[in-house]
Amino acid sequence: MKKITFALTMLLSLCLGVNAATLSSLTWANVCTGAMGAEWYGKEESQTVADIVLDVQKNNGGWMKNDQLHNLTDAEYNALVGAKSGHSCLDNVATTQEMRFLAKVYQGCKVEKYRESFVKALNMILSAQMQVGGWGQYWPRSGGGSYQDYITFNDDLTVNALKMLRDVYSNSGDFLDIVDEATRNKCKDAFDRGIQCIIRCQVDDNGTPAAWCAQHDTIDYLPTEGRPHELPSISGYESANLLSFLMTVENPSAELQNAITTAVEWLNNHKYMDNAKVEDFTNNNNEADRRIVSATNSAVWGRFIQIGGESGAKIYNKLFNKLYNRSKSRSYEQNGTTYTYTEYEIAHNSYNSQKAGQPIYAIYDDTYPHMYYRFLYSYEDADSIVDWKGCKVPTSLNALRRTKYQFLGSWCYKVINSEYPVWKQKIDMANAAGDATMYVLDATTNTGVNTTAVYNFNDGFTITNTAEKAYGTGKENTVKYSNGKVYTITIPEGKAITKIAFTGYNNYSTSDAYLAELGGAEYATDKYVFPAKEADGSYTVKSYSIDLVSPVSKALTFTVKGQQCCLAINVYLIDATGVEKVYEVDAKAGVVKYIENGAVVIEKNGKKYNAAGKQL
Q1: Cα separation of 433 and 571, whole Å?
Q2: Greatest CA separation found in the chain?
Q3: Residue 2 has pLDDT above 50, yes or no
Q4: Element (H, E) at 79
Q5: Is residue 188 packed enough to be buried (19+ CB in 10 Å), middle (13-18) or exposed (0-12)?
Q6: 121 φ/ψ angles, rounded to the nearest 5 degrees
Q7: Which positions ≥6 away from 521 have C-beta within 8 Å?
Q8: Which pLDDT score is estimated for 429?
Q9: How far apart are CA 306 and CA 315, in angstroms?
Q10: Rounded mean pLDDT of 150-168?
C-alpha cells in the first residue's frame, strides 16, 4: 500500500503544479497522443504517470479500456492492480494508446523499463492476431462463441492495431529503434496479413464487391452480429474508417486498389439520404433526440445497411440458425401478461427481405428484452403494432436509442468526395510511372522534424524556402505553400526527376492561384490553375502532371502565385547514372549544369563549357 499511496500522491501533486492543470483537464487519450507537448514526455512528471501505467499492465501484456490512468483514485488503482491477471483489450484504442504513451516517454528519457513494457504489449498484439490476420476484442479470447472473438472492425480496433504495427516497422519518430530489426520484420508481416484479412472480408453483394461489417466470421468471413442491436450488415461507419486507413497504405497492391475503389462505389450508391445530415435537438417531450435535416455538401448513411438477394439470404439465415441452435428465450411483461420469445423467432419473424439496401435498427435495452435482435426499419418515431404473440411492440427507434447510438451518420461523405479523389489521382499517377519510382511529398510522408526554412520528408527529400515560411498542413494530407515564395525540392543523391505532379487546392476565396514556375520555366496565369474557394468554404481539388524536358537532379524549384495553395507533390525518380542528360538548374545564376554522354556540360548565356570552364 505504501508504494500505491506514494504513486498516487505524486500524481496528485502534478495536478497542482505548473503542468498539472493541463494534465488533469485532459483525457487519457489526449495525454497518450501527445497533448502535453513533446518536452513533457521527457520529464520526471511523465515518468510518474508511466510508472502507474506499468503497475496496472496486464500480465499478458495489455490494458483494459476506458481507464483514465493519469487520474486514478486509490480505489481505481488498487482494482486495476488486482485485475492484472485478466484479459487485455484492444477495443476503444485500449493498449495501443498506452503503447503510444510509453513510446513517447521512452524516447524522452531512455529508461529501459518503459521500452520493455512497450515490447511486452507489442508481443501481445502479435500473439492475439488470428491465423486469418484479424483481431478480436480481448486477449486471451473470450471463448464460448462470443461475438468478441470475431474479426473486429468495430470502433477501429483493427485499424488501431495495424497503425501501431506500421509505426513500429517504419522505425521512425516515437518508435525509432524501440525494437530490433527481427521484431520490426514480424510487425511488417503481421501488418500485411492484416491487410489481406480486410480484403478477404469485403462483403459480396450478389457478385458486386461492397464494403464491410463491424464484425466478420473467422471461418467464412461473412458479416456477423455483435451485440443484440448490431445486426449483420454493411456498416457505413466502420467502412468509412477502414477506407480512410486503407488509402494511407503505401504501394497498394492491385487487389487492395480494387477493394478501395469498389467499396467507395458501393457506398456512394447506397446513401440513405442525399443533401442531409443528422442533428441533435430537444423533442416535444423535452427529451434529447436526433433527427435528419437538410444540409448541403452532406449525405447520410446507415450504420447497418441490410444486404439483399442470395448474399443476404446466406448471411441472415446463418444468424437465424445460430440463434435457433442457441435456443435462448427472453420474457417481457405487458399489462399483466408475460410474453416469452426465443431470440430466433424475434429475429426471423421481424426480418423483411424486401428492405435490402436500407438501414436496419434494433433496440438494446434490458427493460425491453423482447426487442433483442428484432429488425426495425424506421429511424423516426412510428406507430407500434401488435406482433404475432399479441404483444404491442415498437416499429421504430425511440429518442433514447437514437441518442445513445449512432445509427445514422455522414461518415462516408468526406471519404467519397474528398479523400478518395485525391487518393485515386495519386494511384493513377503511380500506376503510370512506368520505369520511374514515385515518391509522395505530403503531410503523411513528412517526418515531423521541420524548421521554418526546411521541410523534411521520407526517403531523403527536403523542401526548402528562403522566406522562412514555417511548415503547415492543409486538408487532404496536403502541405501549405505560400504565394510567391520560391520552394526548392532537394533530390536524393544519384536520382533524377523525370515527372512531377501537383495535387491540391487554393486555400483562399479571394482569387485564383496558379503554378507560376517550375525549374526556372515560367507559366501563364491560366495554365495550371487552382480555383478560388467558394463562399461556403468548399474547394476544388486540381491535379497537374508535368513531364520534364530532361531529367533533373540535385534540386528543382517551384513557385505558386495568386494565393497560398495546399498541395501534395508526387515526384517520379529514375537513377541518374547512365542518363544521357541530367540537369541541375541554378535559376538565380542563370546556369544549367548537366551530364551529357558521361561528360559535365555547363550552359550560361547560351554558351557551353566543360567542367574545367573551357568553352565547347
Answers
A1: 10
A2: 108
A3: no
A4: helix 74-82
A5: middle
A6: -70, -40
A7: none
A8: 81
A9: 10
A10: 97
Using the CB atoms, write b or e for 103-129: b if 16+ within 10 Å: bbbbbbbeeeebbebbbbbbebbbebb
d(CA 391, CA 380): 21
Q: Report helix, strand or coil for 51.
A: helix
Q: Which three cell numbers stand for residue 270?
A: 447506397
Q: What is the CA radius of gyration of the chain?
A: 29
Q: Hey, CA dihedral for 262, 264, 267, 271, is it positive or negative? A: negative
Cβ count within 10 A of residue 481: 26
Which among 404, 327, 272 has a CA at the least distance from the CA of 145?
327
d(CA 481, CA 486): 9
Angle at 73 between CA 67 and CA 75, to 5 degrees: 95
Three-class secondary structure assignment of 589-602: CCEEEEEECCEEEE
Task: Write down the pLDDT at residue 598.
Answer: 46
Closest to 47 measured CA to CA, from 114, 136, 147: 114
The model's pTM: 0.80
Strand partners, 487: 465, 558
**Residue listed under C-alpha cell 498539472:** 20
Residue 177 C-alpha cell reads as 529503434
- d(CA 9, CA 505) in angstroms, rounded, equals 52
* φ, ψ at 108 (rounded to 5°): -80, -30
pLDDT at 5 over 50: no
Question: Beta-carbon neighbour count of residue 561 at 10 Å?
Answer: 17
Q: Bigger pLDDT: 437 or 394? A: 394
Say which residue the cell 427472453 belongs to: 330
Nearest-angstrom CA–CA distance, 14 and 588: 55
| First-to-last C-alpha distance (Å) of the chain | 86
- The runs of H, that is alpha helices, within 447-557 are none
Rounded-to-integer distance, Cα 330 and Cα 366, Å? 10
- Grid cell, residue 419, equals 479523400
Q: Does residue 571 contact residue 526 with C-beta atoms inside 8 Å?
A: no
Three cell numbers, residue 212 = 464491410
Span 257-311, pLDDT tens digits: 999 999 999 999 999 999 999 999 999 999 999 999 999 999 999 999 999 999 9
CA 208 to chain CA centroid, Å, is 25
Distance CA 212, CA 249 (A): 18
Please name which of 524, 457, 522, 517 lies closest in space to residue 491, comparing C-alpha atoms: 457
> Order of strands across the sheet with 273-282?
273-282, 288-302, 408-409
Contact yes or no for 238/246 (Cβ under 8 A) = no
- How many of the other CB atoms lie within 10 Å of CB of 490? 16
Cis peptide leading into residue 359 (ω within 30°): no
Which residue type does 204 have? D
Alpha-carbon span 519 to 553, nearest angstrom: 11
